[in-house]
Amino acid sequence: MSRRPTIGILTSGGDCPGLNAVIRASTKSAIRLGYDCIGFLRGYEGLVEPVNYMPLNAQNTAGILLQGGTILGSTNRGRFTALVGEGERVRIDPALLEEVAVTVRQLALTGLICVGGDGSLGIAQQLHEYGIPVVGVPKTIDNDLGVTAFTFGFDSAVAAATDALDRLHTTAASHERVMVLEVMGRHAGWIALHAGIAGGGDVILLPEIPWTFENVCRKVVERDAVGKRFTLIVVAEGARAPGGGLVHAGTGDCAGQVKLGGIGEIVGREVEARLGREVRTVVLGHLQRGGAPTPFDRMLATEFGAHATRLVHEGRFGEMVCYRPPDISSVTIAAAIGRLSTVDPHGSAVQAARALGIGFGDDEDSCFGGGGAVVPSRKV
Ligand code: F6P
Known about the structure:
Rossmann fold; 2 domains; four-stranded parallel β-sheet; binds 6-O-phosphono-beta-D-fructofuranose
């Protein structure tokens, strides 16, 4: 058993690029402050029977800055689940909370750094309320946490989606096809918006802006009319189908929530049927969640990790690090959870996109220079 004070770290929920950078930064900075570190395996599951952890040190965290995923493993299933977003949260079984408290006591942890998205931070808050000394670090590729300007993982996901669009661009142009790219974004369309703009998309469909097939098709026809016989459509998995709800992929559930997917295929099929054009649909899926973090995400994750260790050192439990440009600071976890950040339909990024002629499938598209094209309103 170690005689130095010890900090525990865990990564919870869906993985994302930058988790290892947090682990490395927290560990390296903790060692310099005189702590030992241990990492719990498979998220919160590692805290309860059979308790599962590994030592973290200078040797086994060396070289992980650029590795995707998490060396500690993670899960968004299991005994600890909490609903994401607003509304009633799932309460964790008090017996489970007590098991965590026992583990923390037995290992004499000074503090526990919990790295996770909204659902995982909701669990951290329940641990905090139970008297367990936790500190939070926000992560999600979806960038939908309200109190931080950016979460790490988002920039890497946008880079992957932009790369996919770059590749789709050349093949779409060669074959004069409509290409639909479905990207992640359960509650918010940040990935679709940023990659759509950065990757030269022509139509971006978001959960935040209701859209119609007529308007999507109109954009394709308008482009045809000016000799641009291909169109790139980017759609967030959480974009509701017109007149319908969220599109689910199978029956699996994610932390109490259904698995999304399939809206891209619906858009592709409908455009093909209405316009008689060749359409291909690509679902980017977990390719946008895997792989190395971008330099921005390495930087943000490193600052988050070091700051989280400092919060433990200063005894500021129940707080979560956040990025409020230009500084890294902290807020209470209680104030952070359940506050989703969604795309502002009137925000500057959407306005800039509209000014360039990018469509969002709504009636405003035609206010920005389009609107002249006649499109079939029913299937042909
Ligand atoms: O919350 C991040 C996210 O990437 C969502 O965009 C997506 O719906 C979900 O995770 C998928 O998670 P998994 O495939 O791990 O269940």
